[in-house]
Amino acid sequence: VLAERGNTTSLKLSHTSENRTYLNQIAKEWRDCSQVPRTNLQTEQIVVLHLNGSSIGAFDLAVPDLSGEAFEQQLTDRRMTLHHDEFVRNATGVVLFVHPDVQQGTRLTQALQLEAAIGGVQDGAGLSAGPIAPWSVEKLPTQVKLVELIQFILERAQRKVRVAMVISAWDLVDSLGAPHEFLSRELPLLQQFLDANADLLEYAVFGVSAQGGDIGDPKEKQALLELDDALKRIKVRQGQDTGNDITKPIAWLLRRE
Amino acid sequence: MADAPATEATNDAAAATTPVADEPKFVEFFSGGALSAADAEVVTLRSRTHLIVLAGAEGSGKTTVVASIYEQLNDGPFAGFQFAGSRSLLGFEEICHLNRLASDGAQPDTQRTIPVEEASYYHLALKGIEDGARRRHVLLSAMSGELFRMAMDTREDAERLTYMRRADTIVVLVDGARLAVLGQRENAQTEAASILEGLIDARMVGPSCRVEFVFSKLDRVNAGGQAALNFLSKTQEKFEERFRNIVPSLFFRKIAARPDASVSSNGLDTGLEEAFASWTSLPLAGEERWTIPSPSALDREFGKFGWRHFAQSRMES
Fold this sequence. Notes:
- The complex is a heterodimer of chains A (257) and B (317).
- With 257 residues, chain A is α/β, with parallel strands linked by helices.
- In chain A, 35% of the residues lie in helices and 21% in strands.
- In chain A, a hairpin with a 3-residue loop joins strand 2 (45-53) and strand 3 (57-65).
- The longest helix of chain A has 15 residues, at 142-156.
- The longest helix of chain B has 20 residues, at 182-201.
- Chain B is globular.
- Chains A and B meet through strand 4, helix 4, helix 5, helix 6 and helix 8 of A and strand 2, helix 3, strand 4, helix 4 and strand 5 of B.
- Strand 4 of chain A pairs antiparallel with strand 2 of chain B, so a sheet runs across the interface.
């Protein structure tokens, strides 16, 4: 986007990066409407972009592309590598990615109340009564995982932290309301945590659809590929405003007071 | 912040002489599980903290009350508070597991309090929903009946409960389900009274400590009909007569922390929200506790435990 349409974005490319191999690879996948490969522990990269922002001036943006697996490990092992810790301590801001298909941690009492309300099966007979699955960290609801990870960050950050929360695959839930409404509806514990710690962090919520639709659906993928301009696939929503400027969350992190 | 942060598990001097290629070094964090008495003390020393001890016979619903408070916060602000953090999120999640679809269970249940060598504490950082509210800290402890009995037997066991003597609120749960059963109700009543007597004998009830007898599982009492409700009233009268002169701040309450789905759909007020607001609303006793200087011997533990986060809270206090 920065290379082709810098005049429409909040941040502009001042000159190209020295090592563009990784960027070129993931950009090609995106243009082809293909699944961009997931980052794993072996493929973590630091992407450096040389940018200009209207109220910021020229700067280098270093984005460590960290694997989700590394964060899962932090939750189970209760520790962070010094490598990640250095990123956290020196970071200007954090972009927190959440897929809208969140793990809810639904309670049996809620499920039974719902059954009773719709006049369904009595005495929980509708729920499976198999052997009890043991508790594990992997079963944590998404909002609990995110609160814990932000608590880790607050432990280590050197200053007030800016958190740009990005709800990815936004096209899946766009019809249900604005991004902050998604946060309130689906992740209320996280929302309270973010609101209650305004002295330690500030946050904004964005809905971002990088592909513009479900590329796993052949018909939808075809329609996306047929757009005359691939950049039109991008949707970024903050509040009631929707546009194509995918730099918006990062520009928010970098803005001056 | 310059104060001892999370523990850096490195040894620079050793690394300089014995380089270990590609071995990742780590920063360690707090465990996230239920807190030990020592961990709970760290919280208390660093921040304004309200300690709520839930005591009661086995199966009376102590852990369910703790789990339900956390579950309510999972849905949004509760009892006038919004959730501001916790050092024991994993501990909360573990005791909630048997009420989750992910457990593959068919009926809600709660993991029983296991009598271990020391009591466990669950931590909540909370902030009032009103403008300008301060962050505050609450520790909840479900004290197993067996742990309590052990403490009654020997001085050594009693000393394990030393930290609990700081309780701002003691909740003695009276098992409502047993009150509704003819063959069990007398024992349920006697056990609850014995627990408070034992706590008083062990000098765990401080002069400013709020004590509440809480009749749990109100839905089951209601289901037991008028006879059960009458026995509950008589029990309250008995307790009033027996303890009023010894415990000035004595209160009574009825709750249904996790009512049956069918009862709940009839609009039963669980009473938990009002209860939690009441348990946390007392003026905090023992002001000297907030002015204790940082104990340097505990610095490493503070690091693991999240000193920076708490230091911020303390500044606000």
